[in-house]
């Protein structure tokens, strides 16, 4: 199984689990944990959007979902129990993986200590960039660049520039 397919399967599973968790009496059963889901206004993808955060029983954020004013999924963050992080960015109506504008995968390496690897995927899960042995400082700098770039791309897809404007 290719790395891109693994990312798709893991990310889709985390997404479906996060969406299927509905709060009941302040929390619900979610992978043998209690979770809380909060939704707040967020203008990352234009005025009227929202951000949903899923917190586990330790009050750690395990997933976040950004939506535009129409409720379309634009960005999703999820982490698994081993700490691997997935960031997905969707264009169009955000209804299926063919509309994914890109993905960022971050994984901590077991050795050497305090080193990470990060892979950037474009549309169609084409690998754009792979990093290995990143220090925390390098990881933060490169993630900030690519996270911003992916948001710019998605906003460009959903709010295309007008000719002459």
Please tag this protein with its features.
165 residues, alpha+beta, nine-stranded antiparallel beta sheet, 9 strands
What is the tally of helical segments?
2
Give the tally of β-strands: 9
Could you name the ranges where pLDDT drops below 50 across 5 or more consecutive residues?
4-10, 12-30
Q: Main sheet?
A: 9 strands, antiparallel
Q: How many structural domains does the protein architecture include? A: 1
Q: What class do helices, strands and sheet pairing give?
A: alpha+beta
Q: What gross morphology would you assign?
A: globular
The H/E string reads HEEEEEEEEEH
Report helical residue fraction.
10-25%
Radius of gyration equals 16 Å
The largest beta-sheet arranges its strands as 1-2-3-4-5-6-7-8-9
Q: Give the termini distance in whole angstroms.
A: 45 Å
Mean pLDDT: 80
- The proportion of residues in beta strands is 35-45%
Write the layout of secondary structure elements.
Elements: H1 3-20, E1 28-30, E2 33-41, E3 50-55, E4 61-67, E5 73-79, E6 85-90, E7 100-108, E8 116-121, E9 127-134, H2 136-158
Antiparallel strand pairs: 1-2, 2-3, 3-4, 4-5, 5-6, 6-7, 7-8, 8-9
Structure description:
The protein has helices spanning 3-20, 136-158, and strands at 28-30, 33-41, 50-55, 61-67, 73-79, 85-90, 100-108, 116-121, 127-134. The termini are far apart. By secondary structure, the chain is an alpha+beta fold. The chain has one domain (3-158). A hairpin with a 5-residue loop joins strand 4 and strand 5 (73-79). The longest helix has 23 residues, at 136-158.
